[in-house]
Write a structure and sequence with these properties.
alpha/beta, binds nicotinamide-adenine-dinucleotide, seven-stranded parallel β-sheet, two-stranded parallel sheet, Rossmann fold, 321 residues
């Protein structure tokens, strides 16, 4: 089995590469190192069954070379992270939509299975309970770049299904919920690495609003296991599948849990909702995945709880210094 991972030097991509290499798969990785890092690939680049293609996923010639002989493509390359999306909204849309188009167009020739990394963000504002795959999607106004990211991921899903209908491309859509763990960086707005970094530096942990908004976190090693199982599941082809863990925690409780794990003297600082809104930030009250479909298709259930996730993040950031 030969697999191309776009965004292979990223947080999820680099863990997935290690996971797949351990299963005798051969890999091509493609990355422009915009948010991913070469250092994430230390363990895999020496491997004889792994090749790295450096460059942009919108570059058709590069993607054609990288996809040669691939049985499957895991398309992870994207502009990701709330702060990055706010800073570079036009680039976000272009990378996320054009990048997916190039992958799907190239897949017409090579005919690999295409796993597309979508996001829980596509559920938008529309659903405030548990989010399941059949729910309607619902976005906020186009004046907010935040919703541009959500729309770009939703459009990617439509593109994938359009290619499936028109060209017979085999596609699997994974709607990934808050994945976190070692190698995730806080620079682009990811909450847990940001909290851990602040706690270890005795700086305030900044919480938007009152922190009552909830999220469900899944360890990156569980996410990559779920992706690997979906790739081996013929019944998942043509399906949208949530990838997540159902335990919910409020952001305020998460901040307190991080302070407990790090024995930090940091305080918790609340950013007034009004300031967050002025910065274009909109927090959704709840994100919790329905996981029954993933379980039914792959027998997958996340194995690592929140304490393990936080412990691994703290351990990594302490080691990094
Ligand atoms: N981490 C999460 O909680 C989460 C949640 C939902 C969806 N996702 C999706 O999973 C995928 C991977 O995200 P991640 O968390 O590993 O983030 P990441 O930023 O670490 O990974 C994205 C990778 O894509 C690369 N990349 C970006 N633009 C590129 C371009 N134009 N050409 C080539 N490479 C490019 C980056 O350098 C990076 O290595 C993304 O598609 C993201 O939307 C992640």
């Amino acid at each position: 089995m030969h697999i191309l991972i776009t965004g292979g030097a990223g947080f999820i991509g680099s863990h997935l590469a290690e996971h797949l290499l351990a299963k005798e798969v051969s890999l091509a990785l493609l990355d422009d190192h915009s948010t991913g890092q070469r250092s994430n690939l230390e363990a895999v680049l020496k491997h004889p069954r792994c090749t790295l293609h450096e460059g942009d996923v919108r570059d058709e010639a590069l993607v054609t070379r990288a996809m040669q002989g691939a049985d499957a493509v895991v398309h992870l390359a994207a502009a990701v992270g709330a702060e990055l999306v706010m800073r570079s909204p036009a680039r976000t849309l272009d990378v996320n939509v054009r990048g997916t188009e190039v992958v799907l167009e190239t897949a017409q020739k090579e005919k690999p299975l295409v796993f597309l990394a979508s996001s829980s963000e596509v559920y938008g504002r529309g659903v405030h309970g548990v989010q399941s795959e059949e729910d309607d999607l619902g976005f906020g106004p186009s004046t907010s770049p935040r919703w541009g990211y959500a729309c770009s991921k939703a459009l990617d899903e439509w593109l994938a299904f359009a290619h499936a209908r028109e060209h017979g491309t085999r596609v699997i859509i994974g709607r990934i919920f808050n994945t976190t763990g070692p190698r995730q960086v806080g620079d682009h707005g990811m909450v847990l690495p940001r909290f851990v970094r602040a706690a270890l530096r005795a700086e305030p942990l900044r919480v938007h609003g009152n922190g009552a908004q909830t999220r469900s976190f899944i360890h990156v090693l569980d996410t990559v296991e779920a992706i690997a199982r979906l790739l081996e599941c013929p019944a998942a082809v043509g399906e949208v599948v949530n990838i997540g863990r159902s335990e919910e925690i409020s952001i305020l409780a998460l901040a307190k849990r991080v302070l407990g794990h790090t024995a930090s003297r940091s305080t918790i600082e609340h950013i007034p909702a009004e300031t967050s809104r002025r910065e274009g930030y909109e927090d959704l009250p709840r994100r919790r995945p329905a996981t029954a479909k993933l379980l039914r298709l792959t027998a997958f259930e996340a194995q690592r709880d929140l304490d393990r996730i936080i412990t691994d993040c703290v351990h990594e950031q302490r080691a990094r210094g």
